[in-house]
Amino acid sequence: MAGSDGGSAGADRGLFITFEGGDGAGKSTQIRRLAGALRRDGYPVTVSREPGGTPGAEAVRHVVLDTSAAEPFGPYLEAMLFAAARNDHVEQTIRPALKRGEIVLVDRFMDSTRVYQGASENLDSNFVRALERVAIADVVPDLTIILDLSPSEGLRRAHARRDPNAPADRFEKEDVAAHEIRRQAFLDIAEREPARCRVVDASREPEDVAKDIARLVAGVIEKKGIASSRSAAMRDSLLGAGDGRS
Ligand SMILES: Nc1ncnc2c1ncn2[C@@H]1O[C@H](COP(=O)(O)OP(=O)(O)O)[C@@H](O)[C@H]1O
Ligand SMILES: [Mg+2]
């Protein structure tokens, strides 16, 4: 199948980058920084998150994460809800943005399902893989940045971040052992798919983490030949100057 080894087949003008890792690893922080830096450089950027990213998918997010309404469904049906939400997000948001040639940054994607449903909930791996194929419909990230952090530090950050009056969501309530299993599961994915995945040490200062990420992103921008409005403007002015038509 085209695109199964990384590279968003069928929407391959833009650049698709996903951010993965445990709670508190710094995904939201780093996406915000990267989006700002890319926009300053003149690149069109779309930022989104999972589960969610479209009205339908945000509704699923609310049901699964913020209420106990989906708990009686059990992990298999819950995984199907996540898959339905993901496909809506892919078709309504991600694929159209890639077709427009944008850089799409998504906070959690298919690897979170592999890790949270596959590794933690112990769902049948054939079932998880089949759902993944349906959900992502060949839109595979060009680059997946896995922010690696010890569970204790991640939990410390996540607790410090949370409004003390807000209740913990389901995944935040779990213990350190569950977080450790997921950390290893993310690292295993990176080892199996080195062309797509890069592990970044997230325990350092945000600036240092951002520098590593910027370097990785610059590499894929170059590889895929993504142009910014600045580079286009520069090229136009050079061409204009060259043939006297400016
Ligand atoms: N490198 C870092 N060092 C220390 N604190 C950080 C770092 N990156 C993020 N934080 C803080 O930790 C908390 C969680 O970060 P966040 O970006 O929301 O993580 P995630 O989206 O992965 O759950 C936030 O309060 C954030 O300001
Ligand atoms: Mg976040």
Descriptive terms for the model:
single chain, 246 residues, alpha/beta, Rossmann fold, globular, disordered N terminus, binds adenosine-5'-diphosphate, binds magnesium ion
Give a verbal description of the structure.
- By secondary structure, this protein is α/β, with parallel strands linked by helices.
- It has a single domain (15-243), classed as P-loop containing nucleotide triphosphate hydrolases (Rossmann fold, 3-Layer(aba) Sandwich).
- 56% of the residues lie in helices and 11% in strands.
- The protein is built from nine helices and five strands.
- The chain has helices at residues 27-40, 55-66, 74-99, 110-120, 125-136, 151-161, 176-192, 206-224, 229-243, and strands at residues 15-20, 45-49, 103-107, 143-148, 197-201.
- Strands 2-3-1-4-5 form a five-stranded parallel sheet, with helices on both faces.
- The protein is globular and about 65 Å long.
- The protein starts with 14 loop residues before the first strand and ends with a helix.
- The relative contact order is 0.19.
- Mean pLDDT is 88; it is low at 1-6.
- The site of adenosine-5'-diphosphate has 15 residues, from helix 1, helix 6 and helix 8.
